[in-house]
């Protein structure tokens, strides 16, 4: 089942078979902005390899992962939230509510995606009811950067790769960063051949890599801004950094040779915001500015909130600052560009 949810100036699709937010589009300054990626095999009917999860055939858009980068018993990678059907409870008035058909660590999982007139954002809530234990969680937005992009974030204490590379067998693919490695400056991150500038995409002609930004302490609003200069827009990802202290970046740029990737999955930047200390290669949870996992509440609820958005950005410059003010998000560019756009006050907590 695929549904469309809309408000004035914004719309997105929802694939209830796997919980995928797809077709995210904003009408801003007289043109449509659709920043999310879709894998080249999506919609072609191409058979997926044996063992591939249901999400693989639909790869793109934005989806929620629990456990992020892991499996729960016999679940596919990233868990059941993005690999099992959802029951739609409401799809009207700019809001979609749905319930996952399978438990996650014993919890029922509810999803709420909503839009408002004039707001260039999708407001996302995932609520775990009951359950037990701690779970790595993150959203998994996939940004289309076929023509390149500029990446900036809220302040980070450090950048770090996991213990092992995405691809270690040259016959199957190629990773270009060092694993594990750590740097304070993303512009000079240790690579296999010299350093790599993680603030630009692409920084390597063909590779598959994963790197994490660990939030610096002392602020609430965590943000990632990906400028697409050729398209003249910027993708925005917002969260409460006190609860989700990690920005995880999946660089997928033709670095996998095997099916279904086959060297053709290029220009994709996964912007994955979450709490997933299980991915750390050199640090541990105590080094994070917030919890490294989501703690479920057996007799209550645990909630994850996240926001994605997009705005016209004709200057094509990198974003230098983003902050919340009086029911709006103010975006400032390195060259002096400025925008102020409507935002749901209080959705990501209060200072």
TL;DR of this structure?
The chain has 351 residues and is mainly beta. 0% of the residues lie in helices and 45% in strands.
What does this structure look like?
This is DUF4432 family protein. Residues 154-174 are annotated as: Disordered. By secondary structure, the chain is mainly beta. It starts with a strand and ends in a 9-residue tail after the last strand. It has a single domain (2-318), classed as Beta-galactosidase, Chain A, domain 5 (Distorted Sandwich). Helices cover 0% and strands 45% of the residues. The strands form six sheets. The chain has a nine-stranded antiparallel β-sheet, with no helix packed on it. The model has no long low-confidence stretch (mean pLDDT 98).
Uncertain runs: none
Cα gyration radius (Å): 19 Å
* Order of secondary-structure elements: EEEEEEEEEEEEEEEEEEEEEEEEEEEE
Compute the number of strand runs.
Answer: 28
Q: Could you please say which CATH topology applies here?
A: Beta-galactosidase, Chain A, domain 5
Strand order of the largest sheet: 6-7-8-9-25-21-20-13-18
Which second-level CATH architecture applies?
Answer: Distorted Sandwich
Content-based structural category = mainly beta
Question: Oligomer, anyone?
Answer: single chain
Shape: globular
Region (Disordered): 154-174
Organism: Rubellimicrobium roseum
Protein name: DUF4432 family protein
